Known about the structure:
By secondary structure, the protein is α+β, with helices and mostly antiparallel strands. The protein is built from three helices and twelve strands; from the N terminus they run H-E-E-E-E-E-E-E-E-E-E-E-E-H-H.
Amino acid sequence: MFKTNSKKTALVSLISIVFLLNSSSGFAAVNFEHRTGTVILTTSSGEVQTIESEQPLPPIESGTSIEVVTGNAHITTGAGDVITLVVNNEKVILRGQGKVEVRKDLRTGRGLLKVVEGSGQVVQADGTTKTLKAGQTFEAESVVPTALDAFAPGTDPVQNIGQQKAEELKKVTGY
């Protein structure tokens, strides 16, 4: 007969159940280390959420598309994660562990993405692709706003320039 420690067996079973629940949930280890401004999250099922700077972010599942609409964000991903960052009309696909910094300049409309760790695959509007490695940056030119964009709250660059600078200053200095 084998002797078993029932407490040890129960703990191993509990750890296995938690692992299975976490690995099957689809939620990624995506983390925003720093964020100012608004982001739009689009899940793989098509659900769209607009998250303003003062709102907390929900858990982000693998396969989610993230667009930094205003301000900037420092985003980390874990092993096995796949996310798409939308920078104007360009897409950057991140697979696996990494860290990127994304900034949307309201004065010029340009989007800037810098890969800090890992790598990303840029899929440009014309269909061409390019690999970005740690230390490389990608700049997406401004897109012409549509009439719908012109009426969206908080998208007027003249109105938001001071707000963007104030938010960035507040995050850096704590005031």
